[in-house]
Amino acid sequence: MLVGNITVNDGSSGNIEYYTEAPYGATLNISMLSLDNHDVVEDATKLYQYAVDDEKWGDALFFQNFIYYNGQNYNYTDFPDFLLDLYKIANGNFTLYSIWSNTSTDPTLAEFYLRAKDFVPNIVYNTFIISDSSSAI
After folding, report:
1. Which of 20, 107, 114, 124 could serve as a FRET partner for 89 with CA atoms 20 to 30 Å apart?
2. SS3 category, 127
């Protein structure tokens, strides 16, 4: 997946394959080719593993998404796609938001996870959610 602010990259390219199973939606299963940010993403997988080893699931989830977005430098707390990703991962289990918040080492990210549980997207998987469950566009 190559998305993001292409001006923020380290110019390196390469293949990244990584798999670690983790609880609370923090599993990382990736096989990608980064054309512009390989070294940053590779370093992020190490930070992800440190977070998993220390059971910092909120941090691991952040690094998981950072890696999925090719290590691009966003303010993820202002990034609507990150909210949608969390919503999909939680899949209705609002307890996960508290777990992520309580296991994040960054206070801003911890607060973001608590606020994120109130997010209800209008579009999920390119389908409009209609209040009448018998119809969807």
Report:
1. 107
2. strand
d(CA 93, CA 77): 20
In the three-class reduction of DSSP (H, G, I as helix; E, B as strand; rest coil), residue 14 is classed as: strand
pLDDT value of residue 123: 52
pLDDT of 11 higher than 80: no
Contact 42, 78 (CB under 8 A): no
| pTM of the predicted structure, to 2 decimals | 0.75
Question: Can you list the alpha helix ranges (DSSP code H) found in 54-105?
Answer: 57-68, 80-90, 95-102
pLDDT at 51 over 70: yes
- Identify the residue with better confidence: 56 or 13: 56
Local structure of residue 76 (DSSP, 8 states): G
Burial zone of 119 (CB within 10 Å; 0-12 exposed, 13-18 middle, 19+ buried): middle
